Amino acid sequence: MAASNTQPPAIELRGISKAFGPVQANKDISISVRPGSIHGIIGENGAGKSTLMSILYGFYKADKGEVWINGTKTDIPDSQAAIASGIGMVFQHFKLVENFTVLENIVLGAEDGGLLRPSLAKARGELEHLAKEYELNVDPDAVTENLSVGHQQRVEILKALYRQAQILILDEPTGVLTPSEADQLFRILDRLRSEGKTIVLITHKLREIMEYTDTVSVMRRGEMTATVKTAETNPEHLAELMVGRKVLLRVDKTPAQPGKPILEVEKLRVVDGNGVERVKGIDLTVRAGEIVGIAGVAGNGQSELLEVLGGMRPGEGTVRLNGKELPLTGSGSDGRARRAVHIAHVPEDRHREALIMNFSAWENAVFGYHHDARWTSGPFIKNAAILEEAHQMMGRFDVRPPNPRLAAKSFSGGNQQKIVLAREIERNPDLLMIGQPTRGVDIGAIEFIHQQIVALRDQGKAILLVSVELEEILSLADRVAVMFDGHIMGERDAAATDERELGLLMAGVTGEDAA
Amino acid sequence: MDFLTILQVLDSSVRLATPLLLACLAGLFSERAGVIDIGLEGKMLVAAFFSAAIAYMSGSVWVGLLAGIASSVALALIHGLASITFRGNQLISGVAINFLAAGVTVLVAQHWFEQGGRTPSLTGDGRFESVTLPLAETLRNVPVLGPIYYELISGQFLLVYIAVLVVPLTWWVLYRTRFGLRLRAVGENPAAVDTAGISVTRLRYMAVIICGVLCGLAGAYLATALQAGFVKDMTAGRGFIALAALIFAKWKPWPAMWTCLLFGVLQAVALRYQNIEIGNFVIPVQFMDALPYILTVVILAGLVGRAIPPLAGGEPYTKER
What we know:
Chain A is α/β, with parallel strands linked by helices. Chain A is built from 18 helices and 22 strands. Chain A folds into two domains: 11-243, Rossmann fold (3-Layer(aba) Sandwich); 261-355 and 412-514, Rossmann fold (3-Layer(aba) Sandwich). The longest helix of chain A is centred in the first third of the chain and has 19 residues, at 116-134. In chain B, a hairpin with a 2-residue loop joins strand 3 and strand 4. The termini of chain B are far apart. Chain B: Keywords: Cell membrane, Membrane, Transmembrane, Transmembrane helix.
């Protein structure tokens, strides 16, 4: 490491600024990354991390500032130039052509000559070599859309390595991975680092920063607030740098006092529109005064479970609320009927299912409950009454800015979620179902949302929580059920389990196999 | 129905299928690159008019053909400008091009020739002749194969042979060349192309220009080969039938050829058998004429199974924020 001090930095950014219209995404950012290191960039959503790296990759043009690569001032007007400078990027949303084979995706843009066959043959050989060197095994002839997310990510890494990347930028790489896939990824990154590659890791997960990076830069509201050696900091300090104030990372809650069963699910099956069985006969009970968390990698039936219970799609089996059976198909099985029996639902996809983004906050604050006599008289909506109520709700839930006339899309992710949460919690439901409560929500708002959920539990309500964030499940839930391939693989007491055990269940390994 | 009649109907099917096939392949290039083009009809129409008009004025069908292609490419570039550069709505741009073509052709025709919106009839070098292939006369009397060669394969217009050759050429370009790989990629996920350091705009413009050239061939064929001159609205919805064929063919070149031949057969049968009697019941000629269009509706209603279009079709590409 002593020798590397004499080397110029692999990446040096000097005074980078970038604005999107009135929004200043990056303000005068300078950063220097040592070759052969893993450098973390951490910050809340919208802090400008992705923008900064997209500038480095030539995806956006900086308004001001200089980029130096390996001690040479480099102009990066487009991605072609970035690739030529040895920079590779793995975007959060993969840039793969889904119906292409792995080989075609890797060759795209890096072909040798006008004919395809020689390029593909060359790439096949090179791929074999890379697979051996970095343990990056992927079937070159597999069609990309049939690969698991973890393997698709490998294809992205291989794409970069095939283009001789010396610097690899990864934007939120573990958001879609199981814990074991994430471990594999970090083993690969470690290997790349030992081969002298420089890695920039963008994430909002403090744990990854602490475990895997050498140095870390913190961004807040478009500015770089600090760059420190990872060994010389701690999660609390980083969180404070990110948010600008002290944050409670652990959810403060007392042990649950579960009462009578509120929601009872027996042998629930869900078949989707394509005839695929998504939920394969699950049993689940949620009692008053407890939070049951459903963990699992996205796409293992959790969404469909919430949708059936929320009246958004039909299912088969038995579902009882307070001992009374709920119809799962036909009349009385829609969302309005569910709300009528005091089930509140905060859907996973906030933008598509919970809010109408172009409508104002006050309209969104009563959607689903707008039939209520409080809000209508005959065919007319009582705008003034709703506006007043929305204003108060926004105050109670700390929605900023507290202006009910603003369109939902003008609020940040966290504040949008608070509007939805306010709407559902204020109806005093018996059961609150909440999917991905903090997806796209900044740390400050996460703290508030978690507190609200725990407070509702302490009032004796039943809460069903679905989240792909294992940390969130572990800190919030009292009991954890893990879903894999439409089944519940097992239930654990949240206090008596850990990420490792749940991670195995999430990958479909049952307790007996693991032992 | 004897063998010779069948051959004659097939011969006519091939003639009628040719403009559909060229337009269909034109659409294939555009839509595989993610630019939806409902303006095939309009491009064919201007090409039909300008090829006939210029062929008449110059006395050379070749000059006419070039003029037809140029006019079609001009409209293609307008579509490209609207939908690629200015990121407009591709459907609206296509509709506008169809209206523009329908109006401009008749207006200019009337201004130039004063024959009620048509061009004078083309004769001699102003029109494509049938190409008689070598040995057609000699082999004519060979049983079975002879008549097939003489009636069906020989004696077609040059553009028919070109259209048939464009099919394997399209397949080869699409699946065996770098350009084809990038073209298919840009229609599926332009962001993948962009991050790989390739210009999305350039690729899409190239696709749109190829589309213009092929539509130009299709239009010129209508006015200078299949018929001898331009008449108002002579494309008669062929651009839309070609689009239906493209969907039916799932955006693949060989299936596109078979689908267009199927439409060609329907048109040929309708032309030859005006009233078909089945017992006491007479199928009216109007029904026969409507058959290709009915098939179009059936295809577009999705009764042919699931056709998955290129994923990025119709979406102007903008880098996400």
